[in-house]
Amino acid sequence: MTDATRAAIVRALADLWENGCPVPAPEHQDRLADVGLRRWRSVARRHRGRRLSPDQRVQDVVRGLVAAFEPDRALVGPLVRDYECVARAIADVMTATGPPGTVGDAH
């Protein structure tokens, strides 16, 4: 993972926090970025032979984040919407297009 990619994700998470999303608290932003990136990049290994839609990939990241941050997944309830915002912010950074060598990973 490039430092620019990780930094862009952390900035996106900080923006979510500033706009009232309770999940990406400052003390969790680095770990959220690491877990989300690892989950995003391992999708092909975990879903061999299947190509997930963009929304399915976001939901896959949500599952990874919830598994990493919530001791009892069954109790997450409505908070899952906030994890979806975090996952979507990570996906937005990962799918951003730009010149070669910049942030973005379409896969």
TrEMBL record:
It comes from the Bacteria. This is Uncharacterized protein. The lineage of its organism: Bacteria, Bacillati, Actinomycetota, Actinomycetes, Micromonosporales.
